[in-house]
UniProtKB/TrEMBL annotation:
The keyword Isomerase applies. The keyword DNA repair does not apply. Gene3D superfamilies: Divalent-metal-dependent TIM barrel enzymes (3.20.20.150). It comes from the Bacteria. GO terms for molecular function: isomerase activity; metal ion binding. Keywords: Isomerase, Manganese, Metal-binding. This is L-rhamnose catabolism isomerase. Residues 92-287 form the Xylose isomerase-like TIM barrel domain.
Amino acid sequence: MIDKTLIEAENASRQSDLTQDYEALGARLARRGVDIEALTTRAMGFGVAVPSWGTGTGGTRFARFPGEGEPRGIMDKLDDCGVIHQLTAATPQVSLHIPWDKADPSDLRAKAEELGLGFDAMNSNTFQDQPEQAHSYKFGSLSHTDAATRQQAIEHNLECIEIGRQIGSKALTVWIGDGSNFPGQTSLSRQFDRYLESMKAVYAGLPEDWRIFSEHKIYEPAFYSTVVQDWGTSLMTAQELGPKAQCLVDLGHHAPNVNIEMIVSRLIRAGKLGGFHFNDSKYGDDDLDSGTIDPFRLFLVFNELVELEDTPGLGLAHMIDQSHNVTDPIESLMISACEIQRAFVQALLVDRAELEGYRQENDALMAAATLRAAFRTDVEPILAMARVRAGAALDPISTYRASGYRAKVAAERPKTAAGGGGIV
Ligand SMILES: [Mn+2]
């Protein structure tokens, strides 16, 4: 963890600038009838889970270039997640991937408690083979033609639930790589039937207060067809399974230019939006840092979430799902969490009554201008003040660099080829 006195000293050196910026923004917002304090309170209440696998350097199918001081296992990953939350106060939970993060549940719980972290949704992994497993997932897992392979994948998901139950998680996210690479290779309909049958067996093992998330993805690793390829299939799955099943939207899992904010709206309407995997993309499932390519799209997603936030039963699991190939993953995850929080606060700034008035009058130009007015507002003083009040860093990156954390852990952690980072 980072020394508290360092955080305080770093914050003190920037406090006077922040005070001036916060007051100026507060006055500006007051002219629009907006209370800056209410926004700061909302910002402080916002959290997004960090993926344990995001703390290691990711890679592509061409290569992976390990970074300095990469986590050697889940306990190191949790340490890194603790630093991210300590400096941003925006990432109170960690999402685990099994079997990458397998460890004694009581050790996991104790470590998380020590770091002030909780556990978000569990993630199962049936898209690669593990050394000890009896049946290969080369041709599928939950939808495999072979019943024994399907059963093995079901049991793995049930094991994830059991581990999650012991560490206080309340959800399981299922993403499978199942699909086909050739037309005719598989029956599109019977493969989906097998998937649903397997998912029903997993669903039956859910504790009463748990949810299961179905995550769709258009392509990759299968390049001709994918079993859960879009939100339509994901919605069919969630509806067929029952009330504890919902859909998870990974922003990178769509064809280019798909209107994701509209998918968000539809899934909320159906009572089936369970959560997000945040990232950004230029071409496909790039897993780039949130808000680096298309911050306006991120804002538009949050605009829908804020507009519909009072929908009964809506409880979203916000998670980051990124692969950091060329940056220090801790820095990327901190910046990403802040960008996601920024989009949330910008969406809170939308004048909803004014927007609705323009909609009723069919004033398209002013409706769009209303959204842009919120998007263009620099809410950084609100985010920084939220962090300072929570005891986190006013400027997380500068403080992290000043702490020398990476060099310190690099001395303790030898370079590793493993680490479980990657694109999922
Ligand atoms: Mn994902």
